[in-house]
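fyi for ur records
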Amino acid sequence: MIYTVTLNPALDYVLSVPEAGDEPACRADAAALLPGGKGVNVSLMLRRLEVPSVPTGLCAGVTGRCLLDRLTEAGLEPDFVLLNPDAAPDAGTRINVKLREARPGGVPALREINTAGAPVTAEALEALAARLARRLHRLQPDDLLVLAGSIPPGLGSGAYVQLLSRLSAGAAGRVRVAADTAGAGMAALLPLRPWLIKPNRAELSALSGIQADSDSAVLRAARNLQAAGAGHVLVTLGADGMLLVPARRAGADGLGADCLRIGAVPGRALSSAGAGDASLAGFLAALRRGWKPENALRFAAACGAAAVFSPGGMGSRAEAERLYALTALAGPAVRRLPAP
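which gave:
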C-alpha cells in the first residue's frame, strides 16, 4: 500500500476569469473548490491510475471536513487527524486561491495565492504518528510512505523527522520513504536515508548549494544530496522535462545504475498546479506495475504533461496513457547521461 502524508493540505479555490485588463473588478466565469496539497494530489492521481493509496495527514475545522468530503467523493478513503472540527475557516485547513485569467490565443495567465495555514501543535503530530503506527504495524514488502508538502506553522522543520521517529522502531526502520518537501524540511530528512526524493530545479539548487542550470549541474547536485543520505533522486524540471539519478548502489530496487533524462512532452500548457505531484504519482504507479526505469520515467513525464494540459489540474488516466503512447512514437526519447 502507498500511504501519503500531507501535514498542510488545502482547499484550492480555482477561479476562471475573463481578461480583466486594468478593471478593478470582474466576475468569474467558473469556480471550483478542489482538495489540494502535495500528498493529497499524489493520492488523487494514483486513484485515477487505479493504484490504491491511503491519504493521511492533518486537517482542521469546517474546511478540513470539506477536504475529507471531497476526497471521499473522489473515491479515496482518507485517514486524516481532524482537529477542531467546528473551527471557522480562518482557523482550519487553509484555502488557496488559483486565478486563471483568459488571454488571447487560449492560453490563460495563471496566478496562485497560497496561504501558510493554521498553526498546528506537537500533540496533533503525535496523534498522526499513532495513527500511522497502527497502519504500518504489519508492513508489506511494497509499502511506501510518501511525505509531501509544506510544514504548517507551529511545527518546526524537523516535523517529518519527528513523525518518523514516533513510529515503532520496526516500522520506521523498514518502511520506504519518498519525500517531496522543500528547504529545511527536506534537509532534515536526508540523514534518515529516504528511498527517493523529488525536488524541482529550484529546490535542488537550494538544497545542494549547486546552481542546477544544466544537466551536468543537476547530476552533480543530485549526487551531493545522495552523499547526504538521499536514495534515488527524481528531478522535475518544468518545461525542460525530468531527470532520474538512481541511488549509487547499482541495481537497487530494479532502477538500474543509469542516469536517465527525458524532455517535456510538447503541448499547450493550461495549468502548472500539481504537475510535479502527478509526475511522482505516475513514476510510483509505473514501478508498481514492474516497468523498466526508462518507461517509468516516460510515464511520469506523461502524467505531469496531462496535468499541465488539463484546465482542471491533475489530468486523467486516459490522457496520461495517450501521451505515454505518443512519446513512444514521436518522443521525447529517454536518454542516458554519463554518470558524474
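The mean pLDDT is 90. thats all i got for now
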